[in-house]
Specification:
The complex is a heterodimer of chains A (305) and B (349). Chain A has 305 residues and is mostly helical. Chain A has a domain of 174 residues: MetI-like fold, CATH 1.10.3720. Chain A has 12 helices and no strands. In chain A, helix 6 packs across helix 7. Chain A is flat. Chain B is an alpha/beta fold and 349 residues long. Chain B folds into 2 domains: 229 residues, Rossmann fold (3-Layer(aba) Sandwich), CATH 3.40.50.300; 97 residues, no CATH class. In chain B, 33% of the residues lie in helices and 21% in strands. In chain B, strands 7-8-9-3-10-11-13-12 form an 8-stranded mixed sheet, with helices on both faces. In chain B, strand 5 and strand 6 form a beta hairpin. In chain B, helix 6 packs across helix 8. Chain B is globular and about 65 Å long. Classes of the chains: A mainly alpha (305), B alpha/beta (349). The interface between A and B is medium-sized, with 24 and 34 residues.
């Protein structure tokens, strides 16, 4: 197991290195630069470039950046003067993470339950209800879902606040808006997986032992059906986290999304890089955790070190 | 023989009909099947794929999904005098595993991959508060040893993927036996195993019968397996039993052309290299609309006009040997259906 984990970690680090390198050079390929402005006097621009080290050859900049990154320093923002990328992430990430975790919890809990219920009531109205939810969830984009939620629950029924992110009440609508797509795909996946397992031979073996249907469903069917859904969790975390950007703007959540989107149009190289590296690292960690977790859930993987 | 007749039947099937509703119509998988199982005997059910032997065996424990499956109106399955067909699921659970055990065909897929072997065996006792946890474990290990698994204590804590195919089938047998049933149904228990393991498993079944006095219903398409293990044979074709009798009677004094066809199509060590096997021409009948006459008529080389018109009645060869074939009628031409090579082989070994 230790060897397996070590191997996963080495692969993760390699992935990150490729990601950082690619983004570093790609950002510089964009036409324009952070200080391109008609009003900017050339000598001031030259000063600024010298200050941020942009006057040096690209390859030197790359190694300087990597060296600083190893120390955990992601540099100063080129647009927000006096703010480091580390500061910006530290101030905004907790909000994005909070929203992401709530959305994910919502999606996983309801998605798996819906999938199970649909499979157990296959071909009955409840099943069609679940399929409807899944279709709506996968086909309606999150910003439309967000505005529908705002309109019905906020404006029409006046049940929940539509903006800000302060009390738990404020978190409900954005969490649903972000998590709904994932909920739909989890429930569909879980339903299919459940139906696949129910026709397996070992379910018949379980039945031949004279144990209750409840136990067959719980111990044999769900236990085996949930495994492919766990594999899906890694990429899902990705979609939920990146999915928060638009919703953050709609619900005025002070998260990271705003900076990420803005930084690209303002050529804020350090922020683009910083947030990408941060998200990248986060995702790679999520995937690695899922891989390791999978080893605990499926006994067959533990053996294949 | 007289004594055998008087012994009480453990299991009695009477006019069992079982069909499945599908999009294409109703498939009549089992048609009017009747037979008895006595204590301690091994009965083989033989027939080609799709002849209804597996469905028949699963009917006994009501393992076929209902719906789409359903019993015909006159079907009766009595276990120790109790009617199974009308039993509720809750009552069935007391029969499954405890009174009648079931060994499935493919040990590779019939064990839950995420559950330890020991837990899968002990599951029979779930909800039985009269047995302590330690006792359940003791019984599971005892049964593992009985079915010939070495290091039972270690295997108890292993997952199915850590065992070989033969060992998995032994675990399946252990699961079928741990509840101390009086009948074990083995649905092609050796089909997915290689020949050496097959021989071991068959020996094990025979040994268990002697040790535990259980009855075994053995489903197979292999007459060699039948000859090795069984006391009696039921030959099924097109959802019906077309001949049944003691093993010797079926092999030495075959009274149905289909049984003869099955015997003809077995490969033998004694046969020469360029001697071709004789397959039965044609395919089994379509069970969506089974023929009104004998199901084998379309493939039978001795087919007569009446065969296609009317299902033959039961003809008694001996009190234990019955055949459903018009050739048994006094007016029919005399045909010797016994396969000679079989006679020699059975006598020699």
């Amino acid at each position: 197991m230790a060897k397996y984990i070590l191997k996963r970690i080495v692969i993760s680090l390699a992935t990150l290195l490729v990601l950082i390198t690619a983004v570093f050079f790609l950002v510089r390929l964009m036409p324009g630069d952070p200080f391109a402005s008609e009003k900017m006097p050339p000598d001031v621009k030259a000063n600024l470039e010298a200050y941020y080290g942009l006057d040096k050859p690209l390859i030197v900049q790359y190694f300087t950046y990597m060296g600083q990154l190893l120390k955990g320093n992601m540099g100063y923002s080129m647009v927000y003067s006096n703010k480091t990328v580390n500061d910006i992430i530290a101030a905004t990430f907790p909000y994005s993470a909070d929203l992401g975790i709530r959305a994910l919890t919502f999606a996983v809990c309801f998605g798996i339950s819906l999938g199970i219920v649909a499979a157990l009531r296959r071909g009955k109205p409840l099943d069609y209800g679940c399929i409807l939810i899944a279709i709506v969830g996968t086909s309606v984009p999150d910003f439309i879902m967000g505005s529908l939620l705002q309109y019905f629950f906020g404006v029409q029924m006046k049940l929940l606040p539509v903006a800000q992110y302060t009390t738990w009440k404020h978190t409900i609508l954005p969490s649903i808006a972000v998590g709904f797509y994932s909920l739909a795909s989890i429930s569909r996946y879980m339903r299919t997986s459940m139906l696949e397992v129910i026709s397996q031979d070992y379910i018949k073996t379980a039945k031949s032992k004279g144990i209750s249907n409840f136990r067959i469903t719980w111990k044999h069917q769900i236990r085996n059906a949930i495994m492919p859904v766990v594999t899906m969790m890694g990429p899902l975390v990705a979609s939920v986290l990146t999915g928060t950007f638009v919703i953050e703007a709609m619900f005025v959540v002070p998260g990271m999304g705003k900076y990420y989107v803005e930084s690209i149009s303002t050529y804020d190289y350090t922020i683009v890089l910083g947030i990408t590296v941060f998200y990248g690292a986060f995702l790679v960690i999520c995937n690695t955790v899922v891989d390791i977790l999978y080893g605990f859930i499926d006994p067959r993987i533990k053996i294949a070190k | 023989m007289e004594n055998m007749e008087k012994m009480e039947n453990l299991l009695e099937l009477r006019n069992v009909t079982f069909s499945f509703r599908t999009y294409g119509g109703v498939v009549q998988s089992v048609r009017d099947v009747s037979f008895n199982i006595k204590p301690g005997e091994i009965v083989g059910i033989v027939g080609e794929s799709g002849c209804g032997k597996s469905v028949t065996s699963q009917c006994i424990l009501k393992l076929n999904p209902q719906p789409p499956g359903f019993f015909g109106p006159d079907s009766s399955i009595k276990y120790k005098g109790e009617e199974i067909v009308t039993m509720s699921d809750k009552e069935m659970r007391k029969i499954r595993g405890k009174e009648i055990g079931f060994i499935f065909q493919d040990p590779m897929t019939s064990l839950n991959p995420t559950m330890k072997v020991g837990a899968q065996i002990e599951e029979i006792f779930v909800g039985d508060k009269s047995i302590s946890k330690a006792e359940k474990k003791r019984r599971a290990i005892e049964i593992l040893e009985l079915v010939g698994i070495n290091e039972a204590e270690r295997r108890y804590n292993q997952y199915p993927h850590e065992l070989s195919g033969g060992m998995k089938q032994r675990v399946m047998i252990a699961i079928a036996l741990v509840g101390r049933p009086s009948i074990v149904i083995a649905d092609e228990p050796t089909t997915s195993l290689d020949v050496t393991i097959e021989a071991q498993i068959l020996d094990l079944l025979k040994e268990l019968r002697e040790k535990l006095g259980i009855s075994i219903i053995l489903i197979t398409h292999d007459l060699g397996v039948i000859a090795k293990l069984c006391d009696r044979v039921l030959v099924m074709y097109g959802g019906k039993i077309i001949e049944h009798g003691d093993v010797g009677e079926i092999f030495y004094d075959t009274k149905h052309p289909y049984t003869n066809g099955l015997l003809n199509s077995i490969a033998r060590l004694s046969s020469s290299k360029d001697q071709k096997l004789t397959p039965i021409e044609g395919t089994p009948p379509d069970l969506f609309s089974p023929p009104k006459g004998c199901p084998f008529a379309a493939r039978c080389e001795h087919c007569m006009v009446i065969c296609k018109e009317q299902m033959p009645p039961e003809y008694e060869v001996t009190p234990t040997h019955k055949s459903y074939c018009w050739l048994m009628h006094p007016d029919a031409p005399k045909v010797d259906l016994t396969y000679k090579a079989v006679k020699e082989e059975v006598t020699n070994g």
